[in-house]
Write a structure and sequence with these properties.
Helix 11 packs antiparallel against helix 12. This protein has 18 helices and no strands. It is an all-alpha fold.
């Protein structure tokens, strides 16, 4: 029987979990006490042998062996191995529970779509839901020891009312080397098709809905069968078991009290009862026993699934739904809040304080907003607004501007304008290939270059002569406002003459 303590932990209180430590049924004490006693007896025997029977030379040898065993315990990753294994087992355990077939959805579909108040209609509905319950009994009988003890043979299934004699004969006449839990599902589909042909199921949509629910039900039966067939790999379970047993085998020897090897050397505290080692055994071995108990929840342990109770509940509820409750409705009348726009159910005195709590409207409902009116004004997004770029990076990645024209900035006699032009047909590609260039701006850049080259040809080249009279092209008032003007201060003639004209040859 499953041990439930949900009510005991409904409210958090002082020592809430501590009260659960004194329960025996389903507890770790009941699960582990035999192994715990064996470990304590073996530890006590080794301790007596060391203290009473060994000679000094043998004690010295035993001390070295014990120290080696104590160091070896650090090499076994107990927390990692056990933690990962138990997590896998717990996830598998819950997945098996959610795979248990329940007829609740199927019985609602049968009750609403298989019509007829006469005897034939009742027989159809009851037979359909009985086939579904029979399929669940057959699969649970194959995987659960409790159900198999309840129905050891098919005759017991017939006697329990899940199957008639004729159905039993038909079931036995169908030979198969595999589990035949699916046969009642096939009977269900054929009977549903016959009901559709007879008009008991009025349209194909209702028949399709009925088939879909049956397929979901059958899929859960199949999943239980495969969980029972495909276990966690045996090697994994063996690795975890060997790791735990070898760890505590080393502890039996390495955690013993040892006398000092040299006279006058201070020894450890003599603890006749190794509390820390016993607690470690309780935790690690208990962890392993938890995995051992829930790896197959269809057994007879305290916390295994109550499959027999599930069978009883499913049969009773499903037959009640499709038979006694078919078209058996209470009268439809106006409800209590018919004339009220806002329904407010009453509270008892014990729960009246809950009405004082405000309703939760969302986590951002009470957030303080900015009081500045400008920040709260609505602004329409326009695709024509240019993207804001980093000022430093825009010098290298943005399109060239005619106002950024540094003419004659060179240390050699052949001065040139150093203006970067984005190229599209070769050279350094533009990082913004889709951005169109202004033809007027590009033409102005080329005109400046041509004027600069003509002035260099007409004027004699002397050190510093072209640098001292360099003028930037005058920009219009609109360009001065929109574009950035970069001016470069020319170096003095003395610094240029000191280096010599030969050093500035490109």
């Amino acid at each position: 029987m499953t041990v439930s303590y949900t009510l005991k932990v409904a409210n958090s209180c002082f020592g809430g979990f501590s009260k659960l430590l004194f329960r025996w049924k389903g507890s770790i004490y009941k699960l582990l006490y035999k192994e715990f006693i064996v470990f304590m007896v073996l530890y006590a025997v080794l301790s007596l042998v060391y203290r009473r029977l060994l000679t000094e030379e043998q004690k010295s040898l035993y001390t070295k062996v014990a120290q080696y065993c104590n160091r070896s315990t650090d090499l076994i990753p107990m927390s990692f191995v056990l933690g990962f294994y138990v997590t896998l087992i717990v996830n598998r355990w819950w997945a098996q529970y959610t795979s248990i077939p329940l007829p609740d959805q199927l019985m609602c579909v049968i009750s609403s779509n298989v019509h007829g108040k006469d005897e034939r209609g009742r027989i159809l509905r009851r037979t359909l839901i009985r086939y579904a319950n029979l399929s669940a009994v057959l699969i649970l009988r194959s995987i659960s020891t409790r159900v198999l003890k309840r129905f050891p043979t098919m005759d017991h299934v017939v006697e329990a009312g899940f199957m008639t004699q004729d159905e039993h004969k038909k079931f036995e006449s169908l030979h198969s080397d595999f589990n035949k839990y699916w046969i009642p599902c096939v009977w269900f589909t054929n009977l549903a098709a016959q009901a559709r042909w007879d008009g008991r199921i009025r349209d194909d949509v209702a028949l399709r809905l009925l088939m879909d629910e049956l397929n979901l039900y059958r899929a859960k039966c199949s999943m239980l069968f495969h969980y029972d067939w495909i276990s966690i790999p045996l090697v994994y379970t063996q690795v975890v078991t060997i790791a735990v047993y070898s760890f505590f085998a080393f502890c039996l020897i390495g955690r013993q009290f040892l006398e000092p090897l040299e006279p006058g050397q201070e020894g450890d505290l003599d603890m006749y009862v190794p509390l820390s080692t016993l607690l470690q055994f309780f935790f690690y071995a208990g962890w392993l026993k938890v995995a051992e108990q829930i790896i197959n929840p269809f057994g007879e342990d305290d916390d295994d699934f109550e499959t027999n109770k599930l069978i009883d509940r499913n049969l009773q509820v499903s037959l009640l739904s499709v038979d006694d409750m078919y078209q058996n409705l209470p009268p439809a009348v106006k409800d209590k809040y018919w004339n009220e726009s806002t329904a407010q159910p009453p509270y008892t005195m014990a729960t009246a304080s809950e009405t004082l709590k405000p309703s939760f409207l969302g986590s951002t409902f009470d957030m303080c907003m900015c009081e500045d009116a400008e920040q709260n004004q609505m602004v329409e997004a326009s695709p024509s607004v240019p993207c804001i770029q980093t000022p430093r990076l825009s010098r290298f990645f943005a399109a060239a501007s005619p106002a950024i024209s540094i003419k004659n900035f060179s240390r050699g006699s052949r001065a040139r304008s150093h203006v970067w032009h984005p190229q599209t047909d070769g050279g350094f590609p533009s990082p913004y290939p889709k951005r169109s260039e202004d033809p007027e701006l590009v033409a102005r850049i080329k005109e400046e270059e041509m004027e600069d080259e003509a002035s260099q040809v007409s004027k004699p080249t002397t050190p510093g002569s072209h640098l001292g009279h360099t003028r930037l092209p005058e920009a219009s008032e609109t360009q001065k406002k929109e574009l950035l003007l970069i001016q470069v201060k020319a170096p003095s003639s003395e610094s240029i003459g000191a280096d010599g004209p030969e050093a500035w040859e490109p």
